[in-house]
């Protein structure tokens, strides 16, 4: 008497990477079975298809595998990161480009200023060009970016001084000549004090380097008069050729009247040092 045995097929179902999600459907089945398999992406991942032979629909998380032989199939998962965008202030403008993005991609984001405002910068990690309203973001982690807007400054007399600043400091917003005035006789014009965020009515409030001391062949100690809540950059050059200045440090002004920092020199040589007001915090 002839005896027949049903051929059994083994189906192995794997997740790639293992932490990317969960899979089900593996086991032993009769030859010719269309075995169901399923994949569920974990937090921070998305399903990216099945790899292996016999899969009916490789792009569907829920599909079947034809078992005319032993099979091993893999559910591929891809790491995704969340990109969140905000406008500051909320009525300063609109932002676009948020969402979920694959690891390593560089989506484009955009910021459009509302009437009466202007775009200032992006704040947050991963931005390619922080000063550009449209730029790219490197998605290697979850990102939360803020588009900073500011009211458009009114300068009625076109002297480079914002009208509000002139009123606050006793200047005439209708007199274009007062930009070159020096009320406190500290050697700094009103225009220079406006850019330095110093007080044009206080002779002790001015931007100046007070000490540059070489600590060793590769480091300098730089001390300058400062105001709080301002970001300063330290720049160096070996000569005064155009475009020769190189930024070697960035420091927030201290609460006192002086700020001190240590900076590394460029190639161990220094010709000239200058302090530049980068921006005021909150602007």
Low-confidence stretches: none
Computed Rg? 32 Å
Beta-strand share of residues: over 45%
Mean pLDDT: 89
Number of helices: 2
Distance between the termini: 93 Å
Content-based structural category? mainly beta
Give a quick account of the main beta sheet: strands, pairing sense, barrel closure. 7 strands, mixed
H/E element order: EEEEEEEEEEEEEHHEEEEEE
State the share of residues found in helices, binned by percent: under 10%
Total beta strand runs: 19
Gross geometry: elongated
List keywords for this structure.
single chain; 283 residues; mainly beta; seven-stranded mixed sheet; 2 helices; elongated
Give the SSE map.
Blueprint: E1 8-16, E2 21-24, E3 27-30, E4 33-41, E5 45-51, E6 62-67, E7 71-88, E8 93-96, E9 99-102, E10 108-113, E11 117-123, E12 134-136, E13 143-151, H1 163-168, H2 190-196, E14 209-216, E15 219-225, E16 230-237, E17 246-252, E18 258-264, E19 272-280
Parallel strand pairs: 1-7, 7-13
Antiparallel strand pairs: 1-3, 2-4, 4-6, 5-7, 7-9, 8-10, 10-12, 11-13, 14-15, 15-18, 16-17, 16-19
């Amino acid at each position: 008497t002839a005896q027949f045995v049903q051929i059994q097929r083994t189906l192995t179902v794997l997740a790639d990477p293992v932490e990317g999600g969960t899979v089900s459907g593996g086991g032993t089945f009769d030859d010719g079975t269309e075995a169901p398999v399923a994949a569920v992406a974990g937090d921070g991942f998305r399903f990216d298809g099945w790899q292996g032979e016999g899969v009916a629909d490789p792009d569907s998380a829920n599909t079947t595998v034809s078992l005319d032989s032993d099979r091993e199939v893999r559910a591929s998962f891809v790491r995704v990161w969340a990109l969140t965008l905000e406008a500051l202030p909320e009525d300063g403008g609109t932002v676009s480009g948020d969402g979920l993005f694959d690891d390593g991609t560089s989506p484009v984001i955009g910021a459009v200023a509302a009437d009466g405002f202007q775009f200032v910068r992006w704040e947050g990690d991963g931005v390619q060009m922080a000063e550009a309203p449209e730029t790219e973001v490197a998605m290697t982690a979850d990102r939360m970016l803020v588009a900073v807007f500011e009211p458009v400054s009114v300068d009625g007399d076109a002297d480079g001084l914002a009208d509000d600043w002139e009123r606050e400091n006793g200047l005439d917003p209708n007199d274009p000549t007062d930009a070159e005035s020096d009320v406190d006789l500290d050697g700094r014009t009103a225009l220079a004090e406006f850019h330095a965020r110093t007080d044009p009515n206080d002779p002790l409030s001015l931007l100046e380097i007070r000490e540059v001391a070489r600590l060793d062949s590769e480091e300098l100690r730089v001390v300058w008069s400062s105001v709080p809540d301002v970001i300063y950059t330290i720049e160096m050059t070996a000569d005064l050729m155009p475009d020769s200045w190189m930024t070697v440090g960035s420091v927030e002004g201290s609460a006192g009247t002086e700020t001190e920092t240590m900076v590394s020199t460029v190639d161990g040589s220094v010709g000239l040092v200058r302090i530049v007001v980068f921006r005021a915090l909150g602007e």
